[in-house]
Amino acid sequence: MLCYLFDWLEDLQFPGAQVFQYISFRAACSFILSLIVSMAFGKWMIKKLRQKQIGETVRDLGLAGQNEKAGTPTMGGIIIIASILIPVLLFNRLGNVYVLLMIFTTLWLGALGFADDYIKVFKKNKEGLHPKAKLAGQIILGLVVGIVMYFHPSVVIKESAELPSKNVCSSEILKMSNEDASATLNVEAVQAKEKSKAPSVHSTKTTIPFVKNNEFDYAWFTKWLGDEDGRWSFLFYIPIIIFIIAAVSNGANLTDGLDGLATGTSATVAVGLAILAYISGNVVFADYLNIMYIPNIGELVIYISALIGACIGFYWWNCYPAQVFMGDTGSLALGGIIAVSCIIIRKELLIPLLCGVFLIQSISVIMQVSYFKYTKKRYGEGRRIFRMAPLHHHYQKKGIHESKIVQRFIVVSILLVGLTLVTLKLR
Fold first, then answer.
1. Measured between alpha carbons, how far is 102 from 141 in angstroms, rounded to an integer?
2. pLDDT at 161
3. Going by C-beta distance under 8 Å and a sequence separation of 6 or more, which residues neighbour residue 345?
4. 165-174, 212-221, 262-271, 344-353: the lowest-pLDDT one
5. What is the pTM of this model?
6. In CA terms, which of 18, 98, 218, 304 is 20 to 30 Å from 109?
7. Residues 117-171: pLDDT tens digits?
8. DSSP, res 55
């Protein structure tokens, strides 16, 4: 909202009003405000949750320090959601299709998680929302995201046009005045300028790591079946989007098992997402790294900055020993926000690396359950691969303190984010 106020002030030539045109400035403001809101609002919210006796019901799993967590306020994901949306409403341009999609994602999965927590806390049903109902909610979100990303006219990219050769660029620079030439110091600057003039294309292309051209088009699936125009590619594209959202959202949910684990890893992933979104929306960086340039994606940087601030601020209250738990209200929303952000910036195929901690947690559960069922059917007695799943509980069973487990998982997440950024040049 403040963007439109400062646009009006800029028209009046008000001093300093132009600063709101900069993505970096608004992203910094968004981060700072979300951090302040999550810390200040968090304290008030924890107090209210305690007054309402909205506490965690702990099942006896034989884990160290487990009983101490009983009664700790839950549903703290409300703090995260509020800390994201308040800065977004103030600093984002709300007419941007990507911002609207992210707001819908946050509210939708936040409501889904809230319903799950409500059933657990107030209905005293430890199972919470039925898994099929939860999956149905994720499928609906995936349908909305997939349809918008595929059909909305504003969702476009600018592909690398036939850029001028170095000789042509050099001649253009020589033709410029000395003042212009000093501003355009090299060939890459001219090439980036040409790329920004390239026509916008409605495409289903995405980034694929470790490949020379670094791009993959979902239309390949239908072209292989004889659909040369790729007009039916949405039949493959949308189901893949649904799978990605459900997988990452559930992965974040499984990761939320120790104090600060889901919050800390989500914050590190969000930093990587902010960098990826910024370079994808900056024509110079996109051209230098030879990645697709996505117009109007800069507004997503502001949204992700709010996510980073919200996670760090919530970590203040959620680190060991936790004063509040996010519950499914927060974990489902965090996973969904990360998944949809990756889809928007067309880096969803980097998710296994970027969100490696979520992936490992999910795989550990799948392996444990599958092996248990297989051995029970074959030998009459179920056997386990890990002492307990998800993986963080396996380390707890080995006697490692949960705060050390959390810090090490965060370090691993930082490493994976770094490797994800390296893939932009490693082909």
1. 11
2. 42
3. 273, 276, 277, 280, 294, 297, 300
4. 165-174
5. 0.89
6. 218
7. 999 888 888 788 999 999 999 999 999 999 999 999 999 988 654 444 434 343 4
8. B
